[in-house]
């Protein structure tokens, strides 16, 4: 297994340019978060609001129509798109209703709350095939890939001319994808390294700490260990937040490896800020979102460094 590079807690692994005085929404990307179902509307809302707090100019949540009003109610800045559903989750027609919207998107994040029904499967398969679209896949999107065995061959592999594809599995999801036991960190990193090299993916192996496995310039996978974050983040929805953070950074023009590393770093910083302001035991994904607002500028270069 390649050696592990451990990130300092501060400064971040990289920074994004500070905002020009004349900036407008279009400079920071339009992104789409796809997922949610009845009973799991919060997951896609957490991802979508996280993208707003990471600095995206425009964010829409594409959700089953039956939960549209619920998701729209989470945040006035969030736009929503109602897709065909079966009363619970995406129907098979949802993918056809999504395709013509994708060309306008700088990046798409898919999976939180989508469930493993056939409508979700058609959506994920369609997005995997769109190799010109920067993509984050999480949660049930990863469970669907495992169930359908879509990564057994290289059909959905991405080469260096394709857009970035970032997976964000927790150890249970990575075990389903690769067979590497969730309890064995080294084995999981080996398996993620093999998948990253074979399919040209960036893989965030979430946990305490999280690792990012990505192909560096010479085509070999590197393993980068994050040092921000804390066990207070072991609470429902924290991974959904990360999906939105990474999708936002892809939409702001970062590469897969950069969006994944900076995204994991600022996500952990938000968790640390939430733990400090509230408590580890008492914090929820909502407080991680609130804290993200407070720390987001730590990702940007100081204005004078940019002369803007
Ligand atoms: N508010 C909402 O709408 C929310 C909606 N959500 C949505 O729920 C859907 C299911 O996602 P999920 O992660 O909750 O369940 P699942 O895929 O079964 O994986 C959990 C199992 O994996 C294993 N496991 C082993 N190691 C592990 C580790 N380090 N970290 C985590 N798990 C680990 C362990 O299995 P065990 O060892 O217990 O057999 C554990 O029981 C998904 O679409 C998500 O977006 C959630 O985000 C919550 C908020
Ligand atoms: N002990 C821990 N230390 C640091 N970060 C953690 C810890 N436990 C969980 N996290 C982080 O919280 C998130 C949990 O993701 P996930 O299990 O997908 O949550 P959910 O699906 O409920 O949103 C990951 O980003 C993970 O790195
Ligand atoms: Mg998750």
Describe the structure.
Strands 1-10-9-8-7-6-5-2-3-4 form a 10-stranded mixed beta sheet, sandwiched between helices. It has a single domain (28-295), classed as UDP-N-acetylmuramoyl-L-alanine:D-glutamate ligase, CATH 3.40.1190.20. With 308 residues, the chain is α/β, with parallel strands linked by helices. The relative contact order is 0.17. Strand 9 and strand 10 form a beta hairpin. Helix 1 (41-54) crosses helix 8 (238-251), helix 4 (118-129) crosses helix 5 and helix 5 runs parallel beside helix 6 (171-178). The model has no long low-confidence stretch (mean pLDDT 96). It has helices spanning 41-54, 68-72, 94-99, 118-129, 140-148, 171-178, 185-199, 238-251, 256-277, 285-295, 303-306, and strands spanning 4-6, 30-34, 58-64, 79-83, 107-110, 135-137, 165-167, 202-205, 211-215, 221-225. The protein is built from 11 helices and 10 strands. It binds ligand NPW, adenosine-5'-diphosphate and magnesium ion.
Please describe the structure with a list of short key phrases separated by commas or semicolons.
CARKD; UDP-N-acetylmuramoyl-L-alanine:D-glutamate ligase; ADP-dependent (S)-NAD(P)H-hydrate dehydratase; 308 residues; binds adenosine-5'-diphosphate; 10 strands; EC 4.2.1.136; NAD(P)HX epimerase activity; alpha/beta; binds magnesium ion; globular; ten-stranded mixed sheet; single chain; 11 helices; binds ligand NPW
């Amino acid at each position: 297994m390649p050696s592990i590079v451990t990130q300092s807690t501060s400064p971040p692994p990289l920074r994004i340019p500070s905002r020009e005085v004349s900036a407008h929404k279009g400079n920071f990307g339009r992104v789409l978060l796809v997922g949610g179902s009845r009973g799991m509307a919060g997951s896609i809302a957490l991802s979508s609001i996280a993208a707003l707090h990471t600095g995206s100019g425009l964010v829409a949540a594409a959700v089953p129509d039956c939960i549209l009003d619920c998701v729209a109610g989470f945040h006035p800045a969030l736009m929503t798109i109602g897709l065909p559903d079966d009363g619970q989750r995406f129907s098979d027609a949802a993918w056809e209703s999504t395709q013509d919207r994708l060309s306008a998107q700088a990046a798409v994040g898919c999976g939180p709350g989508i469930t493993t029904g056939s409508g979700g499967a058609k959506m994920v398969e369609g997005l995997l095939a769109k190799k010109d679209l920067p993509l984050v896949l999480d949660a049930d999107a990863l469970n669907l890939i495992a169930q359908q065995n879509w990564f057994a061959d290289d059909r959905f592999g991405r080469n260096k001319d394709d857009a970035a594809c970032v997976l964000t599995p927790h150890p249970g999801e990575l075990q389903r994808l690769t067979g590497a036991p969730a309890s064995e960190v080294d084995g999981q990193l080996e398996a993620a390294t093999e998948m990253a090299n074979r399919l040209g993916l960036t893989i965030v192996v979430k946990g305490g700490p999280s690792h990012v496995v990505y192909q560096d310039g010479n085509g070999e996978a590197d393993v980068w260990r994050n040092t921000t974050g804390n066990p207070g983040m072991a609470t429902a929805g924290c991974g959904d937040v990360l999906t939105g953070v990474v999708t936002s950074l892809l939409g702001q023009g970062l590469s897969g490896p950069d969006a994944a590393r900076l995204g994991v770093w600022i996500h952990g910083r938000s968790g640390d800020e939430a733990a400090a302001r509230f408590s580890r035991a008492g914090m929820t994904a909502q407080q991680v979102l609130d804290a993200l607002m407070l720390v987001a500028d730590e990702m940007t270069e100081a204005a004078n460094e940019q002369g803007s």
